[in-house]
Amino acid sequence: MPLAPVPFYILCGSLGAGKTTLLMRLLEYWKAQGKRTGVLMNEAGSVSIDGPRAGTLAEQVMNLAGGCVCCDTKEDLSWGIAQLVRDHGSDVLILECSGLADPAEVVDAVTDAYTARLASLERIMALLHPISTEESHSSAYVTTQAIRCADELILNKRDLYVPGHWERFRTSILEQNPYARLWETSHARLDAADLLTPHPSTTQTTPTNVLFSKSRPGLSQRAAYHPIATTVPLPGPLNRRRLLAWIKTLPKGLERAKGYFRFVNEPELQEFQYALPGQATITPLMLLDEPESVLVLIGRGYDVEHLRTTLLATVDNQPPSHEP
Description:
By secondary structure, the chain is of the alpha/beta class. It has nine helices and 13 strands. Helix 6 (163-176) links the parallel strand 6 (152-155) and strand 7.
């Protein structure tokens, strides 16, 4: 068991956008850094086609074939992460999603209380190219989700499109995600060190074929927490009355919340679940391997620090015997 969760990267995006090409570039970089990289390959078919290629550079490749990792193989994802970290000693993990996998569901899977002990969601990279008008409804939906969830938006295959078409494509992407950093390239030619290191600005220090988007009005500096999934450790049992009042303040930008905790003066472990558009549920349960008290908040476009602060205010700081 590692002392701290290993960084976990998600590579998602359009079908045929060049995800495996970018994956190979990242694996080359990590191998040169002496990292033991574990790869999770998710392909919709029953046989992995790209897995053997990744195996030439990665320490270990786990194939999650036969379905989308967001639904059909969701449990396999958690199992694969555990195998790579515990059995193969991976110190960095990357998942290449099928072009049919919803990255929002993948985020939900990897922020499970047990999986989060092993892997910490570091960044979501979406590789995109101008979408064909003949794209299926399901593929279009997944592409939209990839754009919305991404920390890094990589627009690939620029060399294949005329300027007017490309500019409209880029504008449509920026309208859907005002938080991510934008890259424009061809053949997925990115400097892995640049991609993996947060930048204080979009100024390049060395010549590159990558173009960065200009700063958009109102775009703030990247915060220390992940903008999609924020983990809030709970240092003690919660006050039930305060938590129920906190639930009534949940903002629209919060799409998902989940976790475990205890109420003061109540013996049962509690499981918390919330997902739009439903109501929050709090359910007592028993687990042989009890997780730490924590809530995971998933969403964007809301005041994360305010919600974190008000959640922590529900922790009961009085000794249990003082609670009425």
